[in-house]
Amino acid sequence: MSRAILFASAAIGLIVALPALAQPAPPCAKRVELMKHLSDKYSETPSALGLSDMGGVLEVFTSNDGSTWTVTMTLPSGMTCLIATGQNWETLPKLAASGAPI
Fold first, then answer.
1. Is residue 102 in some structural domain?
2. Does the pTM exceed 0.90?
């Protein structure tokens, strides 16, 4: 294989990998510490959870007035990582397959 082809292959690989390398890892902590922080600073408490196919527990924390929300994933190792945060949470009514409220 010529040097030009090797160089081009390496350059393409680096360009493809750069966006993934540039993304910071999500902040993680022990679950009890993260829950205390969310409660103390934002008055958020758990409002929904589910078990992911990969074995982690996904949780949604919301403030009572819905002004803030946080989504976390607790890994099988026990560490909890922030996935997303935001404002203006709204809980929607459950709907039947027909779209009518349950």
1. no
2. no
